[in-house]
Prior knowledge:
Number of helices: 17
Distance between the termini: 43 Å
CATH class of the largest domain: Alpha Beta
CATH topology of the largest domain: FAD/NAD(P)-binding domain
Oligomer: single chain
Radius of gyration: 24 Å
Mean pLDDT: 94
Largest sheet: 7 strands, mixed
Helix content: 25-40%
Number of domains: 2
Strand content: 15-25%
Strand order of the largest sheet: 3-2-1-4-18-17-16
CATH superfamily of the largest domain: FAD/NAD(P)-binding domain
Amino acid sequence: MTEPLGTDARPLRVAIVGAGPAGFYAAEALLKQQNLVCQIDIFNRLPTPYGLVREGVAPDHQSIKAVTRVYDKLAAAPNLRYFGNVTFGRDIFHEDVTQLYDQVVYAVGAQSDRKMGITGEDLDGSFPATIFVGWYNGHPDYCDLTFDLSHERVLVVGNGNVAMDVARILATDPEDLAKTDIADHALEALRKSKVREVVMLGRRGPAQAAFTNPELREFGELNGVDVIIDPADMELDEVSEASLADDKTARRNVELMRTYAERGNTGAPRRIVMRFLVSPVGIIGSGNRVAAVTIERNNLKQAADGSLKARGTGKYETLQCGMLLRSVGYRGSPIPGVPFSDSSGTIPNVAGRVFQDRDEVIPGEYVVGWAKRGPSGIIGTNKPDSVSTVAAMIEDIPSLEAIPDEKRGLHMIEELLRSRGVDYVTYADWKILDAHELAAGAAQGRPRVKVTCVDDMMKIIRAGR
């Protein structure tokens, strides 16, 4: 008689593709299941784990990064293994994981950005905010980029926390950033920066902004930075004003912004200007570079569903600038062998179960995080999201067509990777690199000094093995 799946005799084999918060929270939910024996392997493209906690959270938000302590404890579990420096679709493939694991969880995030769809968007000096974030956080994909900070004004399009992060980093005194784990190349560039004004453009009004209260409050506490808001922008329409009664976050945001509008210009050396009810409609170039942006004034119209939509009024102005960063939404990218919805930018799913055309569920394949629900929420939002997917996984175990026993050996994925010449990184390997970065940081009075090149990461790991 075949032993039931998820027992000591026949542990549930699970592959998690992606080592960000959603992937770790999925592992945590699985490990917490009573009466379930499982063996989990986490695969990650970079040698370094943690995803956006390392590569997306702003360097001046060290308290948020403390969540990695939870992931460290999870990684110490004897039935969880980490395989870094392994690219899905190049080093391992869909057919590999479906043959060696009973269940596969995709935790691949939303790696690409949405475009604005305006003229001049591809000029030099026009970038997605995600690239700038990756650059100052030391993401290996972006560490070799250069940003021209020789101009006095930068425009940031968007009214969410990512837009606020890039605006704050551009305006913050570099000597304050020197106490963080910002990438060395970014710190050097920001020390030479001539940027004195960052203008944030929001297509709707202050009541519709997607900021969180702590992020907005930080703006008013920045050393040497004025936050400038036209008091006229804080005169809300009746529907926006009424909406504040049921939205505590928006109500507090509006209160803070009204405080900034009243404070006005104090003569600080740098400033963040928050503009509302405006949309960029074209980028003007000088040669191949961004030189100015044409913006259109909007007003708000109530849609049939009660929401307020921004509509152009035909009134335009031009703002000179040397760089534009857009933060207008993010979307996933397809990964080989896995269904993908181009319209939503996510892996199509029902309650975390991956499906293909005509709502046909693919047995044993699941999704968590932004790849599941789209780019919404904060790091903590991924925890209940992953828990709900794991609930579906547990529910499906009795009906799973389990992999054959001859495919269950823990050594099989290791041998497969070695046969393909993949120098995969274990969690113990990562801790070698982690210790190196922490020691370099301690010598400078910083949390860590990040290694930003994969080749350099691997040299340190190999030397320390």
